[in-house]
Every structure is written in structure tokens, then in C-alpha cells.
Design brief:
- The protein is mainly β.
- The chain is built from 3 helices and 13 strands; from the N terminus they run ααβαββββββββββββ.
- Strands 3, 5, 10, 11 and 13 form a 5-stranded antiparallel beta sheet that branches. A 4-stranded antiparallel beta sheet has the order 4-12-6-9, with no helix packed on it. It has a two-stranded antiparallel sheet with strand order 1-2.
- The protein is globular.
- The termini are far apart.
Length: 251
């Protein structure tokens, strides 16, 4: 067996790694290879080949063919700038009732992120121990906001498309409370609860949420913030909000 055949056998034994080397070289050099028949006199020396290109050309008879790629520049796309806004709302004497805050939207916008911190604290010890809870909701509506009757004044939103009404499966006859249907347009709904001892200690509750709705909100819409309370003692309740948005212009 001559030296060329011996080299070919060694190469074929490691064909997998050789092919991988060819692929890597093709990618890194931006070239393509075409197979041609072995030409007479194209013998392999015993010297160490110093490049993958030379190695493949001399062992397999590959010839390098430089490819020319024509590219068309993609049109420049200007993304709308992301702005931020923030505001707070506090109710200092929330006690078995509720309130709402409405913010109007004057431009078409996309809300990218929404960051909200909510908390409540006691303003005095209770006359007797018991529970306290505060519900916080944020909803978006394209029509004039609607609310339920006092004292809680919940935001009323229509049923969400794509869902049925709520069905409670309750074979143990548990005491349950639930909405009749999923509401269209709610961004978040948070419930904070605590047990309040007679001295009022360890009764403050806080929650922080960050959302990424990427939600289109049309001009003329409203963002509605709600909080309501139930429990044995009055609380001071607060919401702090920041959001990131982009104004959407039509051309």
C-alpha cells in the first residue's frame, strides 16, 4: 500500500472529525467546497499540514471555491422611544368600604411594563382581634368606567372573550365567594390579608408586582385603580405605580 492510500485510510477512519473540521472551517472562512476527482501527481507528503484548507485539498482533492454573497441592506426601522410615568394614591381611613382612581389615556400607546407596590397599615389598635383584608385591582376599559354600588364600589368590566362563566365545584359545602366571570381588561388583582391581635402588632402587609403586558391601549381609554377593605379595624392603604410605555403614531 502506497503512502497516499495509507493517508486516505487514516483520514477515512476519522471522517467524522474531518467533516466537522470542514464545516467549522467553511463557517469561519466564509467559503464553500466542491468535490473534484483526484488529479495525478497530487501526492501527500509526510510533513504536518498547517491549515485545514491545505489538508483537505491535498488529501481529498477538494478545491476551494470562493462564494460571493450579495446582500441588500434592510430598511432602517425607528423604534418608538420608551417613556415612563409614575403616580401614587393613598386612602388614610379605609374601613369596610372602597374607592377608585381613574386615569385617562390621551394617546394610543403600548404599555411595556407595569410596576406596582401596595401596602396597608393599622392607624389604631382594634377593639377586638380579627382579620383585615384589602383588595387591589387595576383594569383598562375603552368605555366610561362603571362601578358597583357603595360601599365597596368595585370596577365593573364585561366578561372576557374566550371564557365561560365561573363554576364552583364544592362537594364539601364550603363557604365560598367568587366572581361570576373573568373580567375583560384586568391588568392585575391583588389581595392582602392579615390577622390582627388586640395590640395590633405584626399586622402591616405589603406586596410588590412587576408585569410585562405589552398591551395596546387606545386613546380615549381609562386605567382604573381600585382598593377596598373588610375587617375589624380601619387601615391606611397606599398604591405606588410606575409604568413604561411608547406612544404609537399612525402615518
Amino acid at each position: 500500500m502506497n503512502k497516499v492510500d495509507e493517508n486516505r485510510r487514516r483520514v477515512l477512519a476519522g471522517l467524522g472529525s474531518a467533516a466537522a473540521g470542514l464545516a467549522l472551517y467553511s463557517v469561519t472562512r466564509g467559503t464553500a467546497y466542491a468535490y473534484t476527482s483526484q488529479q495525478p501527481g497530487n501526492e501527500v507528503s509526510d510533513n504536518i499540514l498547517t491549515s485545514i484548507e491545505d489538508w483537505f485539498k491535498r488529501i481529498f482533492g477538494f478545491s476551494q471555491r470562493t462564494t460571493t454573497t450579495t446582500t441588500t441592506a434592510a430598511p432602517m426601522v425607528t423604534l418608538p422611544s420608551v417613556r415612563s410615568a409614575g403616580f401614587g394614591w393613598e386612602v388614610v381611613n379605609l374601613h369596610n368600604n372602597g374607592a377608585d382612581m381613574v386615569v385617562g389615556v390621551t394617546e394610543d400607546m403600548i404599555i411595556h411594563w407595569f410596576d406596582m407596590d401596595v401596602s396597608y397599615m393599622l392607624t389604631s389598635p382594634p377593639s377586638s382581634e380579627g382579620f383585615v383584608e384589602v383588595l387591589y385591582t387595576v383594569g383598562v376599559t375603552s368605555t366610561t368606567p362603571q362601578f358597583t354600588s357603595p360601599p365597596q364600589v368595585y370596577q365593573s368590566l364585561p366578561p372576557a372573550e374566550g371564557f365561560t362563566g365561573v363554576t364552583i365545584v364544592n362537594p364539601n359545602n364550603l363557604q365560598t365567594v367568587a366572581d361570576a366571570y373573568p373580567g375583560q381588561g384586568f391588568l392585575t388583582r391583588l389581595i392582602l390579608k392579615s390577622w390582627v391581635p388586640k395590640d395590633g402588632t405584626a399586622s402591616q402587609v405589603q406586596r410588590h408586582v412587576t408585569l410585562y403586558p405589552n398591551m395596546l391601549v387606545k386613546s380615549g381609554s381609562y386605567i382604573v385603580f381600585h382598593m377596598d377593605h373588610a375587617g375589624v379595624v380601619s387601615v391606611d392603604s397606599e398604591i405606588q405605580v410606575t409604568l413604561g410605555y411608547s406612544i404609537v403614531k399612525s402615518f
